[in-house]
Amino acid sequence: MEFLFKKQVNLETRKKQNKELLKRNPKKIPIILEKDPKCKLEPIQKTKFLIQEEFSASQFIKMVKSLLNISEFEALFLTAKGKYSITGERSMAQIYKDFKDKEDGFLYIAYTTELVYG
Question: Strands of 77-80's sheet, edge to edge?
């Protein structure tokens, strides 16, 4: 999946933004959250997030559901790098460590209501 943020903001600017965010907020994780193109939900208004390292994947999913105004009983899937499912009690710090973008340092996450592999 190609993220709009990467298309709209050049690499040097993204690196600078990430560096400044981490300098001011060393215990937070910079995330870019965008809708998967196949998802039927409306795009989320805010796409840049700074969250606490201690957040679990479940807590982050719950937060995203509330921003999208969908019930906690509706399915919502988050993927890192367009293919790695984000679930459970794994910390966002560990997810960031494993899946952050090597070029600019942001963690890119897509959301969708249907998880399809292949």
Answer: 48-52, 28-35, 107-112, 77-80, 84-86
The C-alpha angle 56, 81, 92, rounded to 5 degrees, equals 15
Q: What is the CATH class of 4-112?
A: alpha beta
pTM of the model as a whole: 0.92
Q: Of the candidates 45, 16, 10, 44, which has an alpha carbon nearest to the alpha carbon of residue 30?
A: 16
The domain limits of the chain are 4-112
Segment 40-74, tens digit of pLDDT: 898 898 999 999 999 999 999 999 999 999 988 88
**CA separation for the pair 96, 112 (Å, rounded):** 19
CA–centroid distance for 45 within its chain = 13
Name residue, tokens 């897509």: 110
The single-letter code of the amino acid at 87 is: T
